[in-house]
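If you are new to this repository, start here. Below is one unmodified record pulled from the training split, so you can see the exact layout before writing a loader.
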Amino acid sequence: MKALAAVTSALAVVIAVLVAPQASAASLTEVTGFGTNPSNLRMHLYVPDRVLSKPPVLLAIHYCTGSGPAFHSGTEFARLADQHGFIVIYPSATRSGQCFDVSSQQALRRDGGSDPVGLMSMVRYVLQRHNGDASRVYVTGTSSGAMMTNVMLANYPDVFEAGAAYAGVPAGCFATTDGSGWNSACANGNVLRTPQQWGDIARSAYPGYSGQRPRVQLWHGTADDTLRYPNFGEEIDQWTNVHGLSTTPTFTDRPQANWTRTRYGDKVEAISLQGTGHNVMASGMALRTIQFFGLDRTPPTSTTTTTTTTPGTGTCKVSYAVNAWNEGLTASITIANTGTTAVNGWALEFTLPNGQRITSGWGATYSPTSGVVTARNAAHNPAISPGASIGVGLQASHTGDAGEPSSFSLNGTACAVG
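And here is the target side for that same chain:
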């Protein structure tokens, strides 16, 4: 993968200047003997000084020419782990060029061999040795690491709750049959398939699996000349199909200049960066990924799988912003906990104006679709800490009245509106 290695040597320099030195006393530690490791990957582990009692686990995968220690020092994930109490695994590829194997037949199927098996051994080691939360395991990476992120989500959908790929390609796109680790057709954006075909490729990595699939966040620059921009659309096609979603966004906005963010329900989020090349990762993006994962929020301390709402635990404020067109609208809803007690499991009740009917939503489940509606938390956002807020939303049809609900209650408590 010489072409990718050449450009990502520059990526290492760019990433290295993004993060200030860590203030924590915790340090990166190499772990050996962590389990089955057919390709002799190295494992470095960052455990903050203070972690949650059952800490979430993040697998953070580097670019070609990189290493686990370089990705640790050059990204913001360790600093965010210090703030939120999760553990970060930083693997290192050891083959020539330090790229991960996303091309061989062994790598592209569950427990088939090569790098994904070693990466899974690292995750299992941390879950066992550090009392990790098996329901909150995540993966992210850039370039080669982004490609591996998509492969891990396809191979182990039962392990990862979500993943974020920075400048990657769809799972299976880089497959080769000649032993080469480089696929020029894929890199150049010339491997174009239907959403169904991409979805089938992802599903074929773990045949017969019918359980929950990971949520996915995708980032790509329009000027990427290494893993070209058409791959971004192919990734969207793959993961929306895996989730049974339309490729038409349910929500579109521009969080900052030159960014276009599209959402597909609450399962897939894609951020296109106008004019940005392959070195896509910049300061602040890691925080957005942590927020997408829900790692900035502490889950409820329930021992059951059923969410129980807790009425009357504090005050709240709801902001409701509508973007309407002829016969439809989207609504972005921000729920803020302005009290002093955490809300563990939430239900937001409001009444839609006559003629409005919800057609889809993200961040919550909505029932019924008209009249007096209750939005209940999704699996990834059950808790709202004091002083914190979360964002959810919906798309609806209307017959002329695109107005907003006049009042809201959270777990039976009336909320301020504004």
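Two things worth knowing about this chain: The two ends are 53 Å apart (CA to CA). The chain has two domains: 2-293, 316-417.
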